[in-house]
């Protein structure tokens, strides 16, 4: 899809829908990705968005700041600096 140029609103909406469902599934099972960014979302041959690169993932008990700083909420890093 990327090689075809900019995404239309419909395709972008479906990708976001799939990615959101994937993250919700992970959170339901106690898994935090901790490095979610556009580069870690791929599109299958069937057009389904897939979340990749779970190398920094953890269960909900391991709550330390990590990941790509530009994609994290500022409060995550502010909280980490306080400890």
TrEMBL record:
Q: Which InterPro entries match?
A: Kinase-like_dom_sf, Prot_kinase_dom, Ser/Thr_kinase_AS
Where in this chain does the record put each Protein kinase domain?
1-83
Q: Which Gene3D superfamilies match?
A: Transferase(Phosphotransferase) domain 1
**Where on the tree of life does the source sit, at the highest rank?**
Eukaryota
Annotated transmembrane regions: none
In the record, what terms sit under GO molecular function?
ATP binding; protein kinase activity
Q: Which PROSITE patterns has this protein been placed in?
A: PROTEIN_KINASE_DOM, PROTEIN_KINASE_ST
Kindly give the Pfam families that the UniProt entry links to this protein: Pkinase
The entry's protein name is Protein kinase domain-containing protein
What species is this protein from? Caenorhabditis remanei (Caenorhabditis vulgaris)
